[in-house]
Amino acid sequence: MGDVFIRHIELLGYEKRFFPSQHYVYMFLVKWNDLSEKVVYRRFTEIYEFHKALKEMFPIESGDINMENRIIPHLPAPKWFDGQRSTQNRQGTLTEYCYTLVNLPHKISRCLHVVNFFKVRQDDMNPVTDSQIKKPEVFLLPKDAKKNPTDITGPIVLQTYRAIADYEKSSTSEMALKSGDMVDVVEKSESGWWFCQMKNKRGWVPAAYLEPMDGPDESEEQEPNYAGEQYIVQKSYTAVEEDELTLKEGNTVEVIHKLLDGWWVIRKDETTGYYPSMYLQKAGEVNTSMKSELRNRIAPPRRSTIRNAKSIHKQSRKQISQETYRRNSKKYIQSQRNMKENLQNKAKVIIEKNEQEENKPKAQPAVPPRPSKDLILNRCTESTRRKIL
Fold first, then answer.
1. Strands across the sheet with 6-17, in order?
2. What is the DSSP letter of 227?
3. Which portions of the chain are predicted below pLDDT 50?
4. Residue 353: what pLDDT?
5. What is the pLDDT of residue 176?
């Protein structure tokens, strides 16, 4: 076995292709030990042949000798004719299969047979197509489909975006762009990197370089939340621009505005500024692998740093100034302080009133007047009457 191995395999969905004839391929996101991520496409017949060969290589673990020793997952054989329904219904099984496969003992999960099957092929990067045939239809797997794969319905229509400037890729997993290129967005990540496809090319693209065809994309972004959500800094970053913040790993911050380009507005104490979202993790969430993965990651470029950007829209994208963020954030913090002080003052007044009530001298009961001699003689007993005679 070599040093190369797979850390994780995720089923993204499947494609319906029309060349050289109609068929279906599954899309897998494969994460490798060098922190690279590749998207590969495999037919189910290929996957099943791979599965059969794996069982022959490990007869004990496949249960051929004793079924009690089986740890290699089951995989149903392909049907005589695989249509869209069977392709769709099989996604839950494939998701579980990939999860179990990667978590098998290293002698199986890291063997050359597994590694070579999921390596990127030439047709993964440049699938054979015919310009006269309509482009593939993409069916993405919902995030919660592991629990209920039957929720997958019709084809998901991918959004088309336009590149506003040239972009040169810096790694093999990215895709270069020319100003005016049209791309279909397959996945939008909060990190500011979007997975896109353009004709025969696929790869990650900075969201800052893309604009929707129907107008500025403010509607896709959340409104600022000056109450803030608590996040923990997972990787230190030194500010390059004046409106960015310099923070160290382990710092606690509050996110007040999540932006599509992966640069979020955060608050540290009473200071606000931009920070790469991919270096943040929500407080309380557990992700032990994140720190090691971030060491070789770079933050995507910001919208404000793109030169020679050319938009097709007359109305430009609205941007909130950093001064507005600071002013509204301070206003919110002050209102919270005032509310807290008012509650404390009310509590103090109640306590003082209670103390005053407790310290007041208690009124002594009045001594009743002594009854008259005639009243005693008329109403009291014989023994009491004798005492006054």
1. 37-42, 23-32, 6-17, 137-140
2. T
3. 1, 146-156, 290-291, 295
4. 74
5. 93
Query: What total number of domains does the chain contain?
Result: 2
Looking at residue 149, what is its pLDDT?
41
Nearest-angstrom CA–CA distance, 140 and 188:
12
CATH code at position 248: 2.30.30.40
Residue 37 DSSP one-character state: E
Query: Does a structural domain hold residue 355?
Result: no
Distance CA(124)–CA(127), nearest Å, equals 6
Query: CA nearest 126: which of 182, 198, 35?
Result: 198
Cα 372 to chain centroid, rounded? 92
- Measured CA to CA, the distance from residue 207 to residue 195 in angstroms comes to 9
Which amino acid appears at position 335 of this protein? S
Distance between CA atoms of 219 and 47, rounded to whole angstroms?
A: 41
Is 285 inside any structural domain?
yes
Closest Cα partner for 41 from 220, 210, 200? 200
- What does the DSSP 8-state code read for residue 237? B
56: how many CB neighbours lie within 10 A of its CB? 10
> 360 in a domain, yes or no?
no
Range of the domain at 73: 6-138
3-class DSSP state of 189: coil
Cα distance between residue 265 and residue 94, in whole Å: 39
Task: Output the pTM of the full model.
Answer: 0.55
CB 167 within 8 A of CB 206: yes
Alpha-carbon distances of 34 from 3, 164, 216, 295, 316, rounded to whole Å = 10, 31, 37, 11, 40
> What are the residues whose beta carbons fall under 8 Å from the beta carbon of 181, sequence distance 6 or more?
162, 163, 198
